[in-house]
Structures are given as C-alpha cells and as structure tokens.
Design a protein that fits this description.
Four Helix Bundle (Hemerythrin (Met), subunit A); 17 helices; 2 domains; TIM Barrel; alpha/beta
Length: 332
C-alpha cells in the first residue's frame, strides 16, 4: 500500500500549531501532520512568517486552508507550495458559526460546484497534492446520496485524496464540540466510497483512539486520521512508526522526547516565544501514568512564572515515576 497518507494527525484549531507539531514529530517521524486551518484572508493579507513558518523536521506536512473564492484559493495554494508544504488541504468539514459566516467549512457541502471550481484552479496552480477534508453530509442532507455525489464531482475536478470525517455536521443546533460527538459515526458509508472508487485514496477520520483501531480500519480504507486522541494522549503515537509503517529506525522513548523538547524550547525562548505557548501542548505526554498530575501541574502553573525556562520540563519529568520508564530509557 502506498504510504503517504497511511496515518495522519488531524488539523485542530488552537492545537496543531508549529510547537505542537514539533512535539508530535519527536514521537512519530512518519505520520503526516496538518496545520491548523488558515483562512485565505489570513494567508493573503496576514503575517506569513508567523502563520506559515515551520521546522523542516515537520515534513510530511500539509497546510489546511479555509475559503471559497477559487482565485484566492489558487493563490493560497501557490503560496503553500512556495513555503515548502507537501500538500494543501481544503476544509469542507468545520461546523463553527464563524466559519459558516465566512462561507467555508462544512457549509460548502451544499455548494459542490463552487468547491469543484476551487479544486480545478488550485490543481492548475500547483504540483503538490490538493486534498479535501469533508463530512459525510450536513443538516437535512442524506449522506448516502450526497457523499457519493460530492466525491464524484470533486474527483472529476482533479482531487484524488479525500479525508472523510464519518459524521454529519449539524450546523443549526449543535456546537462545534457537540458536532464532534453527537452525530453518529457511519464508517460503512466511507467503506462504500472506497469500494466504489478504488482509484481514489480514502482516509477515515472520526472517533479513532488507538493504534489497534487504526489497524482494523486500514483493512478497509487507504489511511486513517486521528484527532483529539493524538493531542490529548500523544504517546499513542509512539507505536505509529513501528506498527503502522513497519519502520524500526526511530526507537522513541519519553526521555528522548523530553530532551528534544528542551532543546527546542531553548531555541524558541531565544526568539521571544512564551514558554507556556509550548508546554501547553505537552500536558498529555504521561496520560494515565503515575505522576501525570504533577507533570501537568508544574507545566501549567510554573511555565507562567517570570524566569521559567526549558529546565522546567526536566523538573516536571522528575515528578513522574521513573520506574515506569526504566526499560524504555535503557533501550533508548
């Protein structure tokens, strides 16, 4: 199986910024990372260095864009390629009111011709993949009808890779958080899309929490995408390279991640980045382990104090039960 999208980590607003992606990349070298969604307006008129810059270690890395103007989407795709991104992804899944007001995200499931035009112009503008992340439908739409139609039209426009969040989005009546939990998952519908489109790459998103679940789904689709589980319990990613990609070349340990983040934090602090902006992404590293509460407390409370530096991470690590990690540190 072609492996470029075998295991992906979802774009998540306020979560998958460059500091989080660097942290996740220390845990898995092979998973495909996605940025937070950036609007076309932000990319075209904002501070591009602040918004688009990333560490070379983050590859493979995709930029997710929110927008609906074909000309602007094409220009943003060109910008993404010029900055070195490996893929540009169109957000057709976000259900928030703010996104709807901007006429992009999940509401575009009702404007298929417009999305197709965006894809056509973006494909003409760049050589990197132009991909779509969508829902199975919205509001009153019948997913078994609308999703196959949507996939067919986007494929005709030139899209070959689809990331499908296997839930409807209810745009009136449910919050974005509720839209990630309440609408039921429909994996079989996504399986059917793959069966009927063997030439397309279909990535399943929604509700996945573990590597075992990923293995199960990879029997039926081309790839999987984890979201909240990858952020809240990031150590689940430590098995991705070996168990999903059969790549034993990155024997990761908690200690190697800690040391890597300490060096990264030193560089970022020298540039004026607040310590808390980085450590906030590391809270879940020891989820479920003895000492995890002390780890979180030190990072959350003391990272805000004047004079706090990278050594705070090492201090927090000493509060974790070292016996739990003796074997992995010996291996590392």
């Amino acid at each position: 199986m072609e492996q470029s999208h075998l295991f992906c980590i979802a774009p998540m607003m306020d979560w998958t910024d460059r500091h989080d992606r660097y942290f996740l990349r220390l845990i898995t070298k092979r998973a495909r990372l996605y940025t937070e969604m950036l609007t076309t307006q932000a990319i075209l008129f904002g501070d591009r260095k602040r918004l688009l810059e990333f560490d070379p270690s983050e590859h493979p890395l995709a930029l997710q864009i929110g927008g609906a103007d074909p000309l602007q989407m094409a220009e943003c795709a060109r910008i993404a390629e010029s900055w070195g991104y490996d893929e540009v992804n169109i957000n057709i899944g976000c259900p928030s009111d703010r996104v709807q007001a901007g006429r992009f995200g999940a509401c575009l499931m009702k404007e298929q011709d417009l999305v197709a035009k965006c894809i056509e112009m973006m494909k003409k503008a760049v050589s990197i993949p132009v991909t779509v992340k969508c829902r199975i439908g919205i509001d009153e739409q019948n997913p078994s009808e609308v999703l196959p139609e949507f996939i067919a039209l986007m494929a005709k426009a030139g899209c070959e890779i689809f990331i499908i969040h296997a839930r409807k989005a209810i745009l009136s009546g449910l919050s974005p958080v509720e839209n990630r939990n309440i609408p039921p998952l429909d994996y079989p519908l996504v399986y059917g899309v793959k069966i009927n489109n063997p030439n397309l790459k279909i990535i399943l998103n929604g509700g996945l929490k573990s590597i075992d679940e990923a293995h199960e789904q990879l029997l039926k689709v081309d790839g999987v995408m984890l979201g909240r589980a990858a952020y809240q319990t990031p150590w689940v990613l430590s098995k991705v390279d070996t168990e999903i990609f059969s790549d034993p070349t990155n024997p990761v340990s908690h200690l190697t991640v800690i040391e890597g983040m300490i060096e990264y934090i030193k560089r970022r602090l020298a540039e004026g980045v607040p310590l808390k902006s980085i450590t906030r992404h590391m809270m879940g590293l020891f989820h479920g382990e003895p000492g995890a509460r002390s780890w979180r407390r030190i990072l959350s409370e003391e990272a805000r104090l004047p004079g706090a530096d990278a050594e705070l991470v090492r201090k927090a690590f000493t509060c974790v039960d070292s016996n739990t990690f003796q074997d992995e540190q010996r291996v590392a």
